[in-house]
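Reopening closed ticket. The problem is back. First fold of the pair:
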Amino acid sequence: MSSLPAEPSSVPALRVREVRKDFPGTRALDGVSLDVLPGEVHALVGGNGCGKSTLMKILAGVQPADAGSAEIGGAVHDLRHFSAALARRCGLHFVHQQSSVFPDMTVAENLAIGRGYETGPLGAIRWARLRRRVAAVLERFEIAARPDDRVDRLRPATQTMVAIARALQDQEVAHEGVLALDEPTASLPPDEVATVLDALRRCAARGQAIVFISHRLDEVLGVADRITVLRDGRVVATVARDGLDHDGLVELIVGRRVEPLAAAAPAAVREAADAAPALEVAGLAGGAVRGADLTLHAGEVVGVAGLNGSGRSTLLRLLFGEQQAREGSVRAGGRALALARPRDAIDAGFAYVPEDRAVAGLFPELSVAENLSGGFAGDYARHGRLVHRLERADARAAMERFLIRAASPEVAISTLSGGNQQKVVLARWLRRRPHVLLLDEPSHGVDVGARAEIAGLIRAAAEEGTAVLAVSSDFEELVALCDRVLLMREGRIAGEVAGAQLTVERIDHLLHSEAALS
């Protein structure tokens, strides 16, 4: 697919030229060039490790380039010496995936932070003037909030819009500069995403230049005017959205055609008719979970769908002993369990892959081999000493089996892409052939190629007899991966969909319909 140059009559709001950045042992960016036009949503996509984040850090002035320039407002800047302060003065505004809003403060206070409070002669904050200014900003961005509203009481999409408004509030002209958003919808439930995308379309219609980074390709195809695809630090294409479909975009990102997942085999075919359930949960309560009941069989992949606050992630933490239950019972293979701590769950054959792998799943300062053996290093102890040769040999075998791409087992886990890091966390557990595998957002922040590979590893584990319970906010993932999906509302399992009823539309409808699950 040929690249499309910027329209000759349009002066780019941002022109990036020949950006290069090297890290030890790898070239993160290799001559990247792109133009972002006023009034367009320009998507930047690519697999984990393709260079998107590195490019954004350079443009934000938090990381120097080794070569390259950026032209903004007619002025050309050497990106080897570009600072965060200069980026702000040039009108580059960034909203990152990790929300930068302060949830326990008001909207007005959030917009004042960074910009500063207006004060009187004696230093007193002029609250009335601040509220008037913030009210005008909220009206300008069509945000359904008031200056004195606490941010944590707003809808998730509204919180994201507050972050965008804070980034753009000081523009003298409504469409000047460039707004760059890094995965702004990653943590939003599906019903909230449309609110943010609609707001971005309105901003672009007023002339705002927007860079939109996302792994959610349907959102990219729904909101972008043009799409730049990065692979291995290079631009492989800049294409118009028109005429490009999901499969075509996937092929550009991965460099090959990715076959869709086959439908999951019916659980009834795979489970032994006379076997006790792998997991039985009755009346489980703790935290946001108020009394959950479920049964899971060996070889079955069961999903859990629920809106924010439904208790879906808490359910997994309770089952792994990471959070204490107030009441209820858990049985595995017909045996009653007391899950007072994670070690109890591990001893019972449970495995748990948390949502935030960077915080709770990885040892970021250690190597790939050490992460693969993390928590089980005793397996390599001989006469009181750790035999690293055995650890490395097992790590190489695991890297091959679980499709982990790294130069060697000795490289730091932090140098791997997000998809490969997730495969390391998954492999750590799957090597032990768990009876029950608990997954929280298994493909969160993972590119489309790695997502398909991770799904294949999960399904392979199920075929070998592991019972899988997977929480995901991505309903398409649940439909493709699972035999059936449990619907969670207000801390309870309120329904189930399977067979012909297992569709994205059906899950979405039931979760948002009070009558349907009552």
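Second fold of the pair, where the issue appears:
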Amino acid sequence: MLLLCLGLLAPPVLAQTGPAFSATLTLHADQPGPVINRNLYGQFTEHLGHCIYGGIWVGEDSPIPNTRGIRNDVVNALKAAHVPVVRWPGGCFADEYHWKDGIGAAAQRPKMINTHWGGVVENNHFGTHEFMDFCAQVGCEPYITGNLGSGTVQEMMEWVEYMTSDADSPMANLRRRNGRPQPWKVKYFAIGNEAWGCGGDMRPEFYADNFRRYNTFLKNYPGNKLYRIACGPNEDDYAWTDTVMSIAGQKMDGLSLHYYTLPSGSWKGPKGSATAFDEAAWITTLRRTLRMEELITKHSAIMDKYDPAKKVGLIVDEWGTWYDVEPGTNPGFLFQQNTLRDAIVAGLNFHIFQRHADRVTMANIAQLVNVLQSLVLTDGPKMTVTPTYHVFEMFQVHQGATSLPVDLQTPAYAFGGQSIPAVSASASRDAAGRVHLSLVNADPRHPARIACVLAGGRFSTASGRVLTADTMQARNTFDQPDAVRPVAFTGFALAGGQLTAELPSKSVVVLELQ
């Protein structure tokens, strides 16, 4: 096996403390499954900490290179990862956000208090026009969350008109006066956020009735058709899914699901450090993130009762790790570092989403910049991408590809009385006929020797990339931005319909077969 590390004179020495274990895999190249919606690789931005201000928006007068106030370095990083969709403005913030405060001349926009996140003053300089400009620069679709909690039906109705109507109408003309002659294309629109909690503390019956009411007034203007997303459950609230689907399932296009990976398993008390952790915290975090499989399976089964044709997508629009904030930072800003552990978490979740590609049509990690399991970190003019970013970039080959089933037999990775499958896998075929096989070795101490039968396909060439590091806690910093990054992977052999590969411990590998 040869691992090359850019910028170093010699390949890194990977910490292996034991012999390789064996796993077997059959890839069924002749049994195509559902298409993997590219929006499974979506993002989430909220007016929280330095996600928007400092992370995306610096203003046109900033010495930090920008285009109309939006950071060029962040945009370029997101374009390279082919980010497909971004959710905004929240989150809990969305149900206190009144969109008319964020349009017009910046100096005349009223300020507000961000009661959810740090009690800071929000100046509304980043509003509808700025967000749409950001999406255009990145090349992604906007996903808007409307204010159901504290907003009116008229307010939400007028926002849709403002953004998407080309008529000679009050809101369309207001948009024109604010410098945007033509309407935007806005497909994804959520009616409220976390209505069971910060979005209104509602019962599912009350929310479902409100969804039907608000939804009635959201119009499809010529040239634009809304994909209407209802507020779904928090984690394992299956009764919420059942009730909302029974009352409003025929009116929606998508139902959201929120699940965060907390090492402690509880919202009360410390959640654990993002960087100072041991192997016990490593396996606990990975075991808890794998619960996503159970949640999607059970919520999907309830949705199947009311929607057997699977017309309603399950939208996992908040997911990712949630640790204690970095010491010395504002606890309301939710800033945490990001290590190789988070990259493994991302890979495992993507494999889960792709196994359920018939029902899961979008996922949005929380959050894009400087908050929770972010892809990008900034500090003034400095920027670095995280290990999680690299998994998004490596896995972009699955976007819009046709899923291929895999049969995987893997031993368990066990530590301290806990165990999880040691290896995870997913495969797809893209429009050009190339097959991509992504693999995750969750064991931090042992390499994995994989024997893969390639059934129903003939392949003559292969190439690969690997993301790993010497330690579980490895992370990128502004001083060492390339401590964790993907490099060429050649630890495999392809011959006679058989692929063998040896994955380093604690690694993510993507192979391309042609």
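Update: turned out to be a display glitch only; the data is intact. Residues 1-14 have pLDDT under 50 and may be disordered. The chain is about 25% helix and 25% strand. Please close again.
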